[in-house]
Design brief:
The complex is a heterotrimer, with 1 copy of chain A (287 residues) and 2 copies of chain B (187 residues).
Chain A (H helix, E strand, L loop, with lengths): L2 H12 L16 E3 L2 E3 L10 H10 L3 H11 L9 H17 L6 H17 L3 H8 L4 H22 L29 H14 L10 H23 L3 E2 L9 H17 L4 E4 L6 E4 L4
Antiparallel strand pairs in A: 1-2, 3-5, 4-5
Chain B lengths: L12 H14 L6 H8 L7 H14 L6 E5 L2 E5 L5 H8 L8 H13 L2 E2 H8 L5 H9 L3 E6 L7 E5 L1 H6 L20
Antiparallel strand pairs in B: 1-2, 3-5, 4-5
Helix pairs in contact in B: 1-3, 5-7
The chains are: A mainly alpha (287), B alpha+beta (187).
Chain lengths: 287, 187, 187
């Protein structure tokens, strides 16, 4: 870290305060000149030309400069002494012009505002007060409003801040951690589109369009096979009647029966009757 | 879409506390009760109240330790207590950016007077607000645009964000330092 | 840089433990005893042995909690315990890639033509069905085997599952959209 910076931070805390009052502006080093912090602005307004640019940068604009001049001389904002303030302000502006500093337009606008207020204050008092009130009022209001924000900004700067006053705690994940891969989302329409794609490409579906009935039969076929597969682990067969669900009514019975016929036709199941009129046993073919 | 993992399993307090603690430590942002539920506890049946109780228990556990569980605007996060900052700071000093007065004053105006236009900010500060300042504040996600003011030119209105509050460890705008009082000029 | 801050101040065990704990939580890499001393404890007079004792104390404190202090090659770091990995994985959901046409067509054929063998699917699609496709659909619990077809080689028969129906919010296969007759599609 460079030396001037270290100086700067220590000066800002412990350096002499040229002015009383709560405003923090005064306790900041006024400028850095050849590596030395200038904490106090020269009383006689003589400013070494090298420093002028830096000084101008110290102010956030004409309001800031005016506030500085007011606070420095312990004037009351409410009782803004226009004449001396205007004189001092103009001295700064002229100095900046002298060394051909590119002066922000706002400084010149403020100069003309000050000049106007000054001239109106010179008018007979009665006329002014009756017409528009104190000609300084608007400027005073602006100065107050700006001072509030300037102060608020300083307060925000003092708030605890991440990486300066507080640090975020973080921990690593365990070595065995594997991020979960979300399941791919599929839309029913995508599924239909996929099948339609197949249909387009093949003649396989040409003679038997898939219809509702065949679907429920096919579903039942799969269900019967699943039931039989389960049964195989226990007793190797199912009773014919157990494959029907009475609650499904006539239509359900028909679907189940059709499914069984289809399965027999495709040799996917076998039916055995061990005695006449006895229970038909349905099973998967023996391997 | 409803995640197909919702299982509504039960979870005991001990496991819940471990899970919430771990989640708060590995998340890269503060976690609200809602976020905790959505991202970490989706498989479990847990009420908001129970999560809040667990958070209070964790906060108590960490009292007086090297890190503490704080509530900020967007949720809870573990951070170091302020009394340790001096000891911890010297290693990280370069990481903490310094902000110019122009940036801080613009930020203050947006935070305290939101929603506010750039023109209104310039009016109060008495100088132009550079685009760079707005960009810096936007890039830091401290300010956002919240619409347009219905005046000629329809200028953009700015407001502060939750990230702004999080960064300064605040839970809401109410917690911003009180503005200094203005003495009335009427008399 | 010569640290001008070396002061060799004394530090009590409680503060030392808080400081070490905080340092381990905010460091972006594992910290060895040397690093802890150099970066975080430079102002204090502390022996390596004492730091090690403090680390052991912290490790004991965090036993059975949401985070634990582990020793890795280059030092110590806080990590989540391995038994929480599964629960924490939800936060880091990686977005899954879209399913390929091959997967969708296979699924559609199984749904509409079940029970069906892999060979039959290949016949209709005109291309081989990779084992990966079957595995993806099986892992997703959308298809299952329901037996063998009694033809040479006894190929496995596939059918759709209840979870398949649940995912698409169907109560039965009847509810699958009826496909348009092929002549309509051709237009």
């Amino acid at each position: 870290m460079s030396d001037p910076k270290t100086n700067l931070s220590s000066m800002s805390k412990e350096g002499p305060s040229p002015n009383a009052g709560v405003m923090v502006q005064q306790v900041l080093p006024f400028a850095l000149l050849r590596g030395k912090a200038m904490v106090e602005k020269p009383q006689d307004l003589f400013i070494p030309p090298d420093a002028l640019e830096v000084i101008l940068e110290m102010f956030e604009g004409p309001l800031d400069l005016l506030l500085y001049l007011i606070r420095k001389q312990k004037f009351d904002i409410l009782d803004l002494p226009i004449a001396p303030i205007t004189t001092q302000y103009m001295t700064y502006v002229d100095l900046m012009k002298d060394i051909k500093l590119e002066l922000a337009a706002e400084y010149l606008v403020m100069a003309s505002i000050l000049a106007e207020i000054k001239s109106r204050l010179l008018l007979p008092k009665q006329a002014v007060e009756e017409d528009e009130g104190d000609p300084r009022a608007e400027l005073v209001r602006k100065l107050q409003e700006y001072e509030v924000i300037k102060n608020a900004a300083q307060n925000i700067d003092q708030l605890p801040r991440i990486d300066r006053d507080s640090f975020i705690a973080k921990v690593e994940l365990a070595e065995n951690f594997i991020p979960e891969v979300a399941n791919t989302q599929v839309d029913l329409a995508e599924l239909v589109a996929a099948l339609q794609g197949v249909i387009k490409r093949t003649q396989a579906f040409e003679h038997h369009h898939i219809q509702k009935e065949s679907l429920s039969t096919r579903e039942r076929m799969a269900k019967i096979m699943a039931t039989l597969k389960e049964a195989k682990n226990n007793q190797s067969y199912c009773d014919f009647s157990d494959l029907f669900t009475i609650k499904e009514g006539k239509q359900g019975v028909v679907v189940t029966f059709l499914a069984m016929l289809e399965l027999i036709k495709e040799s996917l199941i076998t039916c055995i009757q061990t005695q006449v009129y006895g229970e038909i046993r349905v099973s998967l073919p023996k391997s | 879409m409803i995640p197909d993992k919702i299982r509504h399993k039960d979870i005991d307090d001990e496991k819940l506390q471990r899970l919430v603690e771990a989640a708060l430590f590995i998340a890269d942002k503060p976690l609200s009760v809602q976020l905790l539920k959505r991202d970490f506890l989706i498989e479990y049946r847990v009420s908001n109240l129970r999560i809040r109780d667990i958070i209070i228990a964790i906060q108590a556990d960490y009292k007086g330790r090297g890190v503490e569980l704080n509530k900020v605007a967007s949720g809870y996060r573990f951070q170091t207590p302020s009394d340790l900052s001096e000891d911890l700071a010297h290693l990280y000093q370069e990481k903490a950016p310094k902000y110019s007065r122009a940036i801080l004053e613009t930020l203050a105006l947006i935070a305290y007077k939101q929603p506010i236009t750039r023109g209104e900010i310039e009016d109060i500060r008495g100088v132009a607000v550079s685009s760079q300042i707005i960009k810096t504040l936007t890039d830091r996600h401290w300010i956002k645009t919240v619409g347009h003011k219905e005046v000629p030119g329809r200028p953009v209105l700015y407001a502060s964000t939750q990230e702004f509050l999080d960064y300064f460890s605040l839970t809401s705008l109410d917690q911003l330092p009180t503005l200094m009082p203005i003495t009335d000029i009427a008399n």
